[in-house]
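Why do we care about 3D structure at all? Because function follows from shape, and shape follows, mostly, from sequence. That is the central idea of this module. The next example makes it concrete: a single protein chain, its amino acid sequence, and then its structure expressed as C-alpha cells.
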Amino acid sequence: MSAHQRGTELDLSWISKIQVNQPAVLRRAEQIQARRPVKKEWQAAWLLKAVTFIDLTTLSGDDTSSNIQRLCYKAKYPIREDLLKALNMHDKGITTAAVCVYPARVCDAVKALKAAGCDIPVASVATGFPAGQTHLKTRLEEIRLAVEDGASEIDVVINRTLVLTGQWEALYDEICQFRKACGEAHLKTILATGELGSLTNVYKASMIAMMAGSDFIKTSTGKETVNATFPVAIVMLRAIRDFFWKTGNKVGFKPAGGIRSAKDSLAWLSLIKEELGDEWLKPELFRIGASTLLTDIERQIYHHVTGRYAAYHDLPMS
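And the structure:
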C-alpha cells in the first residue's frame, strides 16, 4: 500500500454546511443497479480484477488456526490454476488484496502467509469490533497489540454514539488517536453506516474520518442489519471526491457486508469507475470486504472456461 493519508485540521464549518439530497442519491443508486452487466471475456477479465480487490475475511467466533491457514492459502491461490491457464492469466500473480481476521488470529494469519511464501497483508479488525462500545483505552491497546502481532492494516470501528449525538470534535479526536496507535499500519475506518441514522450523517462521518487521517473509509462491519448499500456508497464516494478536490489527498473506499455474488462485485467496480475514475480501481484505493464472494467469482470463471457450472466439490474453499 502507498504512504499514509496525512489528514487535515478539523474543519467544522465545512461539516455544518453539509446536507445530502436523498431523492437524488436514491435515483442514482437505481441507475447503477439497472445497468446491464458486461458479458463473456470482458466479464471474466473484470471478475479477475475484482479478485485482486478482495479482503478475504473470516470473523467468526469459531475461527481456529486451521481455518485461518485455509483462508490464507485461498488468498494466495484464489482461482484454480487450470482455469487461470485457460485464460492465459496463470503467470500474472493474481491474489486477493489482503486477509482480514480478528486480533487474536493475526499471528496465525502472519505465520500461514509466511509459510506460503507470499507477502499478502494481514488486516485486523479492532477497537471493540463490531459495536465499538468498549473503553477508549482498551480500543487503543487492541490496535497496538494487533500491529505488534504483524497486522499491517487495521479496520477500526467508530463509536456510533458520537455521530448520532453530533459530537464531531470528539469523533475526530478519537480517530486521530486510532491513527497514532496504528503507527506504520494503514487505518481503515468502519462507519457502520446502517446505524448512523441518515445519509447526511454518513457524509459527515466520512469527512471527519478522512480529516482525522483514515487511509480508507469502510461502509460496515458486516454484522449490522443493513450493510453495504449503493445509496450509502454514493454518499461516501462523493465525500471522498470532495475531500480529494479540497486537499489533494486520496482516500480509499471499502464496501463490506452482503456482497456475495459475482454480479454484485461487477456493479461495485462499475460504481467506483464512474464516481472516482480508473485511478481508484487499484487495491491501494479500493477493497471489497467479503467471505463468500470469491466462491461465486470462481464459479462464474469456471462456467466461462468450461461452459458448465461447477459442482460444489469442484471448487473447494482451499
